């Protein structure tokens, strides 16, 4: 899908291009601020037209930079998506890092490690690469992004919002850098990740249930779901408020205009059928860039496709990493976004994105995942479920662990227990081997057209394109070696073999769901 930099010779050639002398030589390398919201779907920032979310600071960056409307993560779950951002590679090119709760591969370097090697002051606040085990380096916990800056606390606006003062910790990070030292910082908000203080969007945020214009077609339009959405909006507002304070610190330091700022999220909203799935609302994400030296025209909306694999090569490009740092990174699958920043879309720019997941959360027998691959072409989405006999959101008896506990989840499960399965089927029921959606008319992906004869030729063409491309990229699932992805161990020992422990009567903590999520019987037995 993207051109790849795969050999030391090509990396050296790239380096030569980046550091060429003459009148068109690059300006000094910029600083980096990578802003990652934890579970925000497109279009849930004000700049994208959502009126029930207040994000003045994201909107400011959009007004002073570029707003992208077609940005996608290939694997919409916290750990796997962040792995892609940090490496410029797809999940199936990262060994066990394709999984959630993974061990980081020893041989894989991150863009932040390369920037640190190039002399950048690096660090993060809040949530970095997580959840998982980064391993060790020189006998200490490996710092994939840099040291953590999360010690300074505040009194949060609700009981469920983090007490980390992200902006104050960024100030501490800035004070720790040497005079004139370039920096790369990761602001990883823990919001709007679950849990939420129910009703806080109204009680604390001052929102009204009527502010929600449309409830997605895969959920019931009831007050508890609307409250859930407004509680989510309040947490996005908190994320945005700290971004504003960070921008104030940058401006006061004189570094704002020499900093490439990228605002995005790791995956879609933490609601049923979204986070951890491969539908439109899960993998389609906000993406805003402010960088005055590199962006040709501010206040521009760009429709060209952006893949998370493009972020690391973009930073390597603008930060002018030398041959040694690039060689240490190895290769990228993605490509620099520089042409788009400069107002040009190359003729060979990708018109599609490959998507894929293996194991996200635990809870199935033998720590099995739910393997899916998908191809998105403009307004067409083809989804292939390689183990349709499994439960896509997790086994009901272990609480549907691949869906965070929420008011929305609880309402749908209670409907199901009363015999009303319409929304349960969409959110938790088993799925067919093939799904096909026309996103132009059905962006919520509720009308599966896979059985329609008129689409058979398109589905066959897209599946061939998908699986051939994945095979070319070394995807083990395409090489009849998918079991290797499933054999990678869960990095958190207490979560390993969750299903077997739970079914044996052991108490196993799963803080991301609630007790009422567990079913005593499988649906067919109820």
From TrEMBL:
Keyword tRNA processing in record: no
Assigned keywords, A-Z: Signal
rRNA processing is among the record's keywords: no
Pfam families registered for this protein in UniProt: Sulfatase
Signal peptide feature range: 1-24
Record-linked PROSITE patterns: PROKAR_LIPOPROTEIN
CDD domains: SGSH (cd16027)
Domain Sulfatase N-terminal: 30-318
Protein name (Swiss-Prot/TrEMBL): Sulfatase
Organism name: Neolewinella lacunae
Source lineage: Bacteria, Pseudomonadati, Bacteroidota, Saprospiria, Saprospirales
């Amino acid at each position: 899908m993207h051109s790849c930099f795969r050999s030391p010779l090509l990396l050296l050639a790239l380096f030569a291009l980046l550091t060429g002398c003459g009148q068109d030589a690059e300006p000094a390398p910029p600083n980096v601020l990578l802003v990652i919201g934890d579970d925000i779907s497109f279009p849930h920032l004000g700049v994208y037209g959502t009126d029930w979310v207040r994000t003045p600071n994201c909107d400011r960056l959009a007004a002073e930079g570029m707003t992208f409307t077609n940005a996608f993560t290939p694997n919409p779950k916290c750990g796997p998506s962040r792995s892609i951002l940090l490496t410029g590679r797809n999940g199936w090119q990262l060994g066990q890092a394709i999984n959630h709760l993974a061990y980081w591969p020893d041989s894989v370097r991150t863009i932040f490690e390369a920037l640190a090697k190039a002399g950048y002051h690096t660090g993060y606040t809040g949530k970095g690469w997580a959840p998982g085990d980064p391993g060790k380096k020189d006998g200490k916990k490996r710092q994939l992004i840099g040291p953590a800056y999360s010690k300074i606390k505040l009194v949060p606006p609700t009981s469920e919002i983090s007490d980390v003062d992200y902006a104050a910790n960024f100030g501490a990070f800035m004070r720790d850098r040497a005079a004139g030292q370039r920096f790369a910082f990761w602001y990883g908000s823990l919001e709007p990740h679950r849990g939420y203080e129910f009703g806080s969007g109204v009680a604390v945020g001052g929102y009204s249930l009527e502010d929600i214009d449309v409830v997605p077609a895969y959920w019931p339009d009831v007050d508890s779901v609307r409250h859930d959405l407004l509680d989510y909006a309040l947490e996005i507002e908190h994320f945005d408020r700290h971004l504003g304070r960070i921008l104030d610190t940058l401006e006061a330091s004189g570094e704002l205009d020499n900093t490439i700022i990228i605002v995005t999220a790791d995956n879609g909203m933490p609601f049923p059928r979204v986070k951890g799935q491969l539908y439109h609302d899960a993998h389609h994400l906000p993406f805003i860039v402010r960088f005055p030296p590199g962006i040709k025209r501010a206040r521009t909306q760009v429709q060209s496709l952006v893949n998370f694999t493009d972020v690391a090569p973009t930073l390597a490009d603008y930060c002018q990493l030398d041959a040694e740092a690039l060689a240490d990174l190895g290769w990228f699958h993605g490509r620099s976004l520089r042409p788009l920043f400069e107002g040009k879309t190359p003729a060979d720019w990708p018109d599609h994105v490959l998507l894929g997941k293996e194991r996200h959360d635990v809870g199935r027998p033998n720590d099995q995942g739910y393997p899916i691959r998908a191809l998105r072409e403009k307004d067409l989405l083809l989804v292939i479920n390689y183990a349709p006999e499994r439960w896509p959101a997790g086994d009901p008896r272990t609480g549907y662990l691949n869906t965070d506990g929420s008011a929305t989840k609880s309402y749908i499960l209670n409907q199901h227990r009363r015999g009303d399965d319409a929304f349960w089927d969409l959110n938790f029921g088993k799925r067919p081997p093939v799904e096909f959606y026309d996103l132009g008319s059905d962006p919520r992906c509720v009308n599966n057209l896979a059985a329609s004869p008129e689409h058979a030729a398109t589905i066959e063409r897209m599946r061939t394109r998908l699986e051939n491309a994945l095979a070319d990229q070394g995807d083990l699932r395409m090489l009849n070696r998918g079991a290797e992805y499933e054999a990678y161990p869960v990095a958190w020992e207490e979560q390993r073999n969750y299903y077997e422990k739970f079914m044996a009567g052991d108490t196993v903590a799963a803080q991301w769901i609630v007790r009422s999520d567990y079913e005593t019987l499988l649906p067919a037995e109820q």
